[in-house]
Structures are given as structure tokens and as C-alpha cells.
Amino acid sequence: MILALTALVSAASGVVLLVGGINLLTLGGSPYYAIAGAVFVIVAALLVLRRKEALAVYGLFTLGSLAWAVWEVGFDWWQLGPRGGFIIVFGLWLVSPFVRKRLGAALERAEGRRASSLTLGAPLLVSIVVAVYAMFQTPHDQPGVLPDPPPQVQASTPDNIAPGEWPRYGRTQLGQRYSPLAEITPANVGSLQEKWRFETGDEKGPDDVGETTYQVTPLKIGNTLYLCTPHNWAIALDATTGKEVWRFDPGVKLDSARQHQTCRGVTYFNDAEAAIDAPCKERVYLPVSDARLIALDAKTGQVCTTFANQGQLQLQQGMPYNPSGYYYSTSPPVITAEKIIIGGAVNDNYSVKSPSGVIRAFDVRTGALIWNWDSGNPDQTAPITPGQTYTPNSPNSWSVFSTDEALGLVYIPLGNQVPDQLGINRSPAVEKFSSSIVALDVNTGAVRWVRQTVHHDLWDMDVPAQPALLDITRPDGTTVPALVGPTKQGDIYVLDRRTGDPLIPIKEVPAPGGAIHEDRAAPTQPLTGLTFRPPPLQERNMWGVSMFDQMACRISFHKLNYEGQYTPPSLNGTLVYPGNFGVFNWGSVAVDPVTQVMFGMPTYLAFTSKLVPRAEVPPRGADEKGSEQGLNRNEGAPYGVYMGPFLGPLGIPCQAPPWGYVAAADLRTGEIAYKHVNGTVYDMTPLPLPFKLGVPGIGGPIITGGGVAFLGAAVDDYIRAYDLKTGRELWKGRLPAGGQATPMTYTDSAGKQVVLIVAGGHGSVGTKTGDYVIAYSLPTK
After folding, report:
1. DSSP assignment of 722-771, as one string?
2. Residue 678 and residue 693 in contact, taking contact as beta carbons nearer than 8 Å
């Protein structure tokens, strides 16, 4: 009975591998799986015949499989495991007394002569030794050390910001995410402990859209923290104790057509012209997901009725189309030169009749429109008159802006025109400004320069991150005002922020063709000298928990269109790598203006996209929710698109880990100093396994003057501290929910440095939801 069952398992495994392996072979893939299937069938037959040669055949197969696996992936445990796990487990069963003693001729068994275990035992032992050896290797880690700072460098930080404050989203309007605080160092960060936690009460509900996320980075001014929640409540907290000071609920109604339900931050303004005790001298501007901007008194949370229409600015004004839920602001506006400048998010791939992506500057006190810059009509920046509308469906900016007040420029990371995967009938202006970084004059809105990061974008590679501004020391000792712009495709643009000219070279490289007949693909794409782009995927990079689902991923890989990065979308289905989450996203990177280095979290997760002719797009379902994954309808366009992560039959990524790193680079030279696998699968699997695969994430880092970088973001629920110099993990704090927000740091009323992060989870990546604000500090001596 035992032999029969063992033979059945071997035969069934063989048939699956043989059928799938032949399919893979016909697609141009590896012959290994077809060979493996044949071996399992042969072993099954030998088991039925009680032939001891079954062990020898399987032993040779085990050695051959080991050699093949090491040839494909080297001593990478996480790739060797799926290739050899089932083989070793089944081999151990074959060599066990339960099977081995039943093999051989009847006379041999009667005389006590059993099948020898050596013919299979030795290959299994070799395989196990190799596996154990591979467990201690780190083939994907790139160790290194950041260089020392150039001599006599002063940080390019506004002089009027006290070290212990965090008054803007990226701490300053430069977007550096750098704090000069140095109480916490690599030597003592391991002693960090929770100081306080606050629960906002705003949690994701059953009727919320899937993309309900908690991404806020609070501001700290004086002894008060200002933050917003996913449903756009504004809350003020005591920065020392975490006690609530006030809250404001704008009454946002749920809308299933809204693609995102989040708030990344609020904007603070201190009116120097107002009397010291005047109401609304200090203001907090709250962006709301039903397309309002609300001004609140920073002391009381009351609405500032002198701003716009009784304290509320309606951002739908001037929109050519205004379907419910299609337009909103997820990111805080910037304030410069007494103007509040704001963009807005437009639902991706819902309809070609979408709101405009216009950028507008309003008087910070009154809300009067001063200028408007519409990337679909870029030369007309004077305020539109009543009855006029902006260009429909022009590229929008949903992320955070940076400003250089000395140069009088605001820097805009721009997205794409809907549909993201179709470039049919785009105007010359759209072709020029899509997926670019644009510098606008803060007084007029006129374009001063534009740097495009993707030509004729067909992959949703919008520029997602706030640019970081700092001064870079050149080899001759001169300094240049620079801009650092991270992108989804992994390129880091280091530009002269006066002109947009590259400080680190940019070249054009050939790109794949093969777009659908109505469209085209750009023949070349830009590539920066500082890039975290991954190498192209190959069949050997496919993954799974076993050889069976790995084989399925290999088959899927070959069935998709893929000629490397920028393979155009197709009716057959296209592999998009890096995928839609990008290598970098809205969390941006942190830069140290003293050492002139950057620290970030490159993420690598492949997606797929498949165009669907309009006639084949199914009718809209009554219970459809706003989503960027699955079917994107593109109403009014000739094609919809199915898109999502490239997953195997068990719902795990088809590409092998690592999927996430921490990395740093020298911005003076463009050299990557180190790149370390980051994060565990602790919260990704049914069992809390602390395996450090390197997991994806979304969020951003900060750097401190003490030489410590802080980052949450990864899909395991931790905030971590790293030695900025080497990237070594120094400390981690367990979070009660996903930490997909960028942390910040400040000093409390006692002068102690505090590190704070919001933990509330992220809809797209599936982390645990919550409503926590958590502060950490060193223990009091």
C-alpha cells in the first residue's frame, strides 16, 4: 500500500511536470521540467515493479537537479529552495525504511537484503549541505560605505527653521526629509522606546474603497503636531504628550468612484501681516478628498472664514468635466511668496472625459486665483475667466511640490494623461510634459524648464515623488543648486535646478517597439548615470514555493510580451518591470545636505497589462469600486486594460525575491554606495516567519544629523533605524498596523528628540489597517 501511494504521488507529479514542461519547452523555455516529469514517471514505474533501481535513478536526478539549479541561480537559498524543496522531501521519503525495505526482488527481501540507501542518500546529503551553505550567503547584498562630506559644507536649509521643528511635509520647502537633530546616533538608537501613542478613531470601514490608506507625515510647530487622517479629519496633538488639542471633521462622504481615500499631510502658514492675537494668524490648510481646500485656525481648529468661500476653496471650479469622485487632492499644497500652490489627483483609467490636471496658485490669505498652469495649454497662465474651462484630461500632479524661494521656482512632478497605457491622439503639449519634472515661475506660473523622464509614456511611469533640493559641491570646489528627482523606473535625476541641465549625465538608449497599430512606441528612452533600475527579467528569475508553481510562472513569463523595460502594452499581455508601484514612489528619497548623499528604498515588483478592445469590456457591475488593479475601463477610449502584479497560481509574486532594499548613493559622483535587502515576510504569511527576503513597500525615509536614517514603509509592520554610513539595520520597532507613511522627527518641550510615525496600513499592499500615531524617544537618564 505504501509503495502504491508513493508511486501514485510520483506519477501524478511526473504527469504535471511533463505536461507543463512540454508546454514550457514549446514556448522556448527550459527543458528541465519536461525531463523532471519523465524521471518522476519512470521512478513511479520502478516503484510499482518494486525495483531498487528507483533509488539510483532518483539519486542521479537529484544530483542533476542540484547542478542545474546552482547553474541557474548560484547559491541563492530563496531560489534554490523552490527548485529543490519537493525533490529533497520526496527523496527523503524514498530513502526511508518505509519505502526502501519494500524494494528489491522477493528473494532478496526474504533474505534480508534491502535496497541500498547510499545511491540516493549520498545525493540527498550533498543537496542538503549545499542548501545549508546557501542559507548563509547574501548574494543580493551590496555592502559599502558612504564617503565623508566635502570640507566646509553647510546644509542648504532655510535659516529661520529651528532644528527641532518639522513645519513642512519634507521638513522644509526643499523636500530634503533631513533633520539636523543629533541626539539619536548609531551608538544609542538601539535604546529607542515608545514614548506615547494616539489613536485617531479614523479606521477603514467596510464601504470604503480598497485604496484607503494612512500616509500622513505630521507637521510640528512649537509644541503642536498637525496631521490629517484618511477621511480628512484634521487633528492637533500636544507634541510632548500626544494628547489631543483639537480636531476638525470636514464631513467627507464616501464615494465608490473615488480611486484613493487618503491624506498625506496638511500645510502650515503663519501670517506675518496679522496681529499677534488675531484669529487665523496661524493657519492649517487641509486638502479634502471631495476636492476642497479648507483653512483652519491652527490654535483652535475653527474654520478661517476669510479664506475663499467661508473658509473653503472649491477645486472643481473651471473643470471641463466633473464626475463625482474623479478629482481630489491627496497631498499637501506648498506655500511660497504668499501663494498657496496646489495640484490634484485624477482617477487613473476611468474615462477620457476627466478633469484637468491644472496647477493653480491662490492668494494664501483670500483664496483668490493668481495664476493657473495647465499642461494641456501651457502658455496661458493668466487666471481663466468665468465660463472658461481648463483642458480636459491633461497630465496632473498628485504628489508634493518643492520650492526655491531665492530662485522663485516651484518644482512640479507630473503624471500622465488618461489612459495611461494608450498614447493615441496625444497633443504636442501632452507629449512634452507627460511624466516630467517642470519648473514654474512662482509669480506667473510660466514654464522655466522641463525635464521629461519617459517619452510617450505607456506604462503609468508618472513622476511620483517630491523633488529634493540641495546644493552639491563640484570637484572644483564650486557649489551648484541641485534637484534630485526619483522616478518609478528607478532613475535618479540630479539636475541643476536653475536650468534643468543634468549634473549627472543622461543618455538616450534604444527601447522596444511593437505597440498596437493605432499607437506607437518611442524609439529611445532616457537613462540617468545614477539609476536603481533592475536588470531585465529572465526565465530563471521566476519563483514559487515549489517547482510546480515556479514552472507555472515560467510558462506565464514566456506567454507575455517582454523585451525588457518599456515593452509596450499589448492585446496579448505585457510584462511591465519595474511595475506600476515603481522603484520609487511618493515616499521619495531623503538627502543629507551636509554629506550630499541620498538614502532610499528601491522596490522591485513586476506588473502585467493587457489591452481589451472596447467591445470586449464587460458591462459595469453595480458593486464596482474604484481601483487601479484588475479591469481599468478607460471609458471613451478604444481599449480598456487589465493590470495588476505579476503573481503565480498561489498569489505570490512570480519573480524571485528580493523585492525591496535600502540603498544609498553619493550625489556628487552618482555612485551607489550600498544596497541591502530590507524587510521580512513576518506579516505576509500565515505563520509569523522572520525570514529576510527583502519585501516591497511604499513610503519614504528620513535622515538625521546623528547619522541615522529611519524608514517604515515595508509590508512587515516595523519602523527601522539604519546607520546612514553603511545601511546596517540598527533597531526596529514593532507597529500595530502597516507603517506605509514617512516618519518625521522633532524635539519635545523638554528638548528630547522624538521620532514619530503613523501606522494605519495601505489598501493596495494589503497591510493591517489601524489609526495609530506613535512616538519614540531615548529613555530619560
Report:
1. EETTT--EEEEEE-SS---S--EEEE-TTS-EEEEEEE---TTTTPPP--
2. no
Asked if 597 and 591 count as a contact pair (C-beta separation under 8 A), the reply is yes
Active site positions, annotated = 460
CA separation (Å) from 568 to 423, 460, 562? Answer: 10, 11, 9
**Quick one: angle between helices 53-73 and 32-48, nearest 10?**
160
pLDDT, averaged across the chain? 93
Higher pLDDT, 189 or 54: 189
The CA distance from 440 to 467, in Å, is: 13
Asked if the model's pLDDT at residue 107 lies above 70, the reply is no
Going by C-beta distance under 8 Å and a sequence separation of 6 or more, which residues neighbour residue 738? 214, 715, 717, 759, 760, 761, 762, 765, 767, 768, 769, 770
Backbone angles phi, psi at 421, to 5 degrees: -95, 5
Residue 153: pLDDT band with limits 50, 70, 90: low
Q: Give just the sign of the alpha carbon dihedral 202, 582, 454, 413.
A: positive
Q: Is the peptide bond before 419 cis (omega within 30 degrees of 0)?
A: yes
Task: Let me know: does 585 contact 698? Beta carbons within 8 Å.
Answer: yes
pLDDT value at residue 112: 47
Q: What is the 3-state secondary structure (H, E, C) of 617-674?
A: CCCCCCCCCCCCCEEECCECCCEEEEEEECECCCCCECECCCCEEEEEEECCCCEEEE
H helix or E strand, kind and range, residue 38: helix 32-48
> What is the per-residue pLDDT for 111?
44
Average confidence (pLDDT) over 61-78: 96
Q: Name beta bridge partners: 570.
A: 610
> Coil, helix or strand for 68?
helix
Q: For position 116, what pLDDT does the model report?
A: 66
Question: Residue 477, by phi and psi: left (phi above 0), alpha (psi -120 to 50) or beta?
Answer: left
Residue 10 phi/psi, 5° resolution? -65, -45
* Spatial distance between the Cα atoms of 438 and 413, rounded to a whole number of angstroms: 7
Q: Residue 127 corresponds to which amino acid? A: S
Three-class DSSP category at 384: coil
Residue 102, SS3? coil
Q: Under a CB-based contact definition with an 8 Å cutoff, are residues 755 and 741 in contact?
A: no
Asked whether 354 and 314 are in contact (CB, 8 A), the reply is no
d(CA 604, CA 695): 9
> Residue 119: which pLDDT band, with cuts at 50, 70 and 90?
confident
- Work out whether the CA dihedral 79, 80, 81, 85 comes out positive or negative: positive
d(CA 347, CA 597): 35
